[in-house]
Amino acid sequence: MNKLLNALGLAMRAGKVVSGEEFVIREVRAGKAKLVVLAKDAAKNTEKKLTDKCQSYQVPLIRFGTRQELGKAIGKAERVVIAVTDPGFAKMIRQLAQ
């Protein structure tokens, strides 16, 4: 779990992370998002919207951590959803999540 948060922080410092619901949806639609990380304490409406969007655009989605943990990992305030735009970071984070 800690390694996954560290990997998110590393991706953020590399400029390969987008956070915030509207920004993430825009990246998914544009085909730039390689992985979406959704906080376990996300609202049901947000969860459904992102799950449906990721399924229709075939972007992997993982449920992980709380909004506080995700925000802290990328050095920002609470974040419910994060998109990783780099295929290498996305692969590494998916492997750590298993």
TrEMBL record:
GO terms for cellular component: ribonucleoprotein complex; ribosome. The keyword Ribosomal protein applies. Keywords: Ribonucleoprotein, Ribosomal protein. GO terms for molecular function: RNA binding. Residues 3-91 form the Ribosomal protein eL8/eL30/eS12/Gadd45 domain. Gene3D superfamilies: 3.30.1330.30. It holds the Pfam family Ribosomal_L7Ae. It comes from Thermoflavimicrobium dichotomicum. This is Ribosomal protein L7Ae.
